[in-house]
């Protein structure tokens, strides 16, 4: 179980290894704002209140292909239920890099669909470089999403911005997003920009 001190240490180590804020956020399953706080105010213990966030460590699943397979099958079952309810289909499963890709690959196999990979903007910029020069991209090594019926897969929803971006990019390619599937939803949403969300777990804040 990670505590705040180990998160601060890990964030600093990842930064020293050359990862940008978005990549650190992906590794720790936290928001970019939380990463910034860990790298600045956190170490100083200045009394400045950190962002309300939850770090998710699902490495006990990720390190086992057997566990990952079972979790992916459970998520696939929920996605099928969602697609059936909306009389929708799927041609391509889009995995959000990095952590959503292995889950997406297994979901695509279960659904008999092709696999696409999307690297979001957050993994391609840092505060020092700025966001304007970077944009999310679909990998050319995987399926083309143009005009396809799609399902998006990611591991964790934190703010939802990455998935909003992915839906917009799919729209720009003439694709239709029929469902979003995630392991854990920290935001507690039923849909993102009108696309229904299926999550195995939700975190509901009570204060």
UniProtKB/TrEMBL annotation:
Gene3D superfamilies, per the entry: 3.40.50.2020
Domain of life: Archaea
Keywords: DNA-binding, Transcription, Transcription regulation
This protein's record includes keyword Lyase: no
Ranges where the Phosphoribosyltransferase domain occurs: 73-187
InterPro entries tied to this protein: GfcR-like (IPR022854), PRTase-like (IPR029057), PRTase_dom (IPR000836)
HAMAP family membership: GfcR
Family: Belongs to the purine/pyrimidine phosphoribosyltransferase family. GfcR subfamily.
Protein name: Transcriptional regulator GfcR
Taxonomic source organism: Candidatus Methanocrinis natronophilus
Taxonomic lineage from the root: Archaea, Methanobacteriati, Methanobacteriota, Stenosarchaea group, Methanomicrobia
Gene name per UniProt: gfcR
